[in-house]
């Protein structure tokens, strides 16, 4: 299947403001591109990319006084397959995990494992299978948090989401990641595109989405506590310990978002050139 995706985001600033953006698709998906994916700026300003320690593409720029619009539009091929479920395996002993996986067991800025350890073991310790624990965690978080854009705030952590029982997709992901880590199941936070593909259209503005991966049986598997069902058409942009490592944009000074539009739609071959 083919998916047309992209965005247009307008920032306004009073003074030149350095910015870092993670608005490119992840390198693991670049082979699937059917049209070029490139960040366009208006006005035209210098930008350059580098790869961070998590393998994400980061873009550096300086927003000129007055502001800038960042935009992209591309077509990508997707398998059309739903998220694969992890194998039914026992939790891997921590001492057997690869060195580069251990970081995904640790607490992080938005994932306070110390505060949620007791909750996790009280709710999920009776399940022997790592997959069953993840399934139970996803269902728990899905039922525990009420979704609403009005509940979003940049400083909300997994502990806050657990207590307040409301949030947006990143809060669902943070809480699920934290509970998995508490149960010694490595988990990483992911962000990207997820359109209304394969489901009934949702009467809400399109946005970027957040989900998470778990490491079970020697491989990574995708789960989504916000939707609590396998989905198709995910386009990964960035992944890391939590939203700190995957922020769409980070401004090193005052910068206001004036407009924000995202599109993610299934298309046919004839639409590529349009």
From TrEMBL:
<protein>
    <submittedName>
        <fullName>Transglutaminase</fullName>
    </submittedName>
</protein>
<dbReference type="Pfam" id="PF01841">
    <property type="entry name" value="Transglut_core"/>
</dbReference>
<dbReference type="InterPro" id="IPR038765">
    <property type="entry name" value="Papain-like_cys_pep_sf"/>
</dbReference>
<dbReference type="InterPro" id="IPR002931">
    <property type="entry name" value="Transglutaminase-like"/>
</dbReference>
<feature type="domain" description="Transglutaminase-like">
    <location>
        <begin position="161"/>
        <end position="227"/>
    </location>
</feature>
């Amino acid at each position: 299947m083919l998916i047309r995706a992209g965005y247009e985001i307008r920032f306004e600033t009073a003074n030149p403001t350095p910015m870092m953006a993670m608005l490119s698709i992840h390198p693991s998906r670049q082979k699937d591109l059917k049209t070029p994916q490139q960040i366009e700026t208006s006005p035209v300003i210098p930008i350059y990319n580098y790869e961070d320690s998590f393998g994400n593409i980061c873009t550096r720029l300086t927003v000129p006084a007055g502001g800038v619009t960042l935009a992209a539009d591309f077509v990508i091929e997707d398998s059309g397959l739903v998220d694969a479920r992890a194998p039914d395996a026992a939790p891997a002993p921590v001492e057997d995990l690869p060195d580069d996986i251990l970081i995904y067991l640790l607490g992080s800025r938005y994932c306070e494992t110390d505060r949620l350890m007791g909750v996790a073991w009280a709710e999920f310790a009776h399940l022997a299978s790592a997959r069953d624990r993840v399934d139970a965690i996803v269902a728990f978080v899905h039922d525990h948090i009420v979704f609403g854009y009005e509940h979003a705030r940049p400083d909300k952590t997994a502990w806050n989401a657990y207590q307040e029982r409301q949030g947006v997709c990143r809060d669902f992901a943070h809480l699920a990641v934290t509970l998995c880590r508490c149960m010694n199941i490595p988990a990483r936070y992911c962000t990207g595109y997820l359109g209304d593909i394969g489901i009934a259209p949702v009467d809400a503005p399109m946005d970027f989405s957040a989900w998470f991966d778990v490491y079970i049986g020697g491989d990574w598997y995708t789960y989504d506590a916000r939707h609590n069902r396998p989905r198709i058409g995910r386009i990964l942009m960035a992944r890391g310990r939590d939203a700190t490592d995957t922020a769409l944009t980070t401004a090193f000074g005052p910068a206001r978002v004036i407009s924000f539009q995202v599109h993610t739609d299934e298309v046919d071959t004839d639409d590529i050139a349009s």
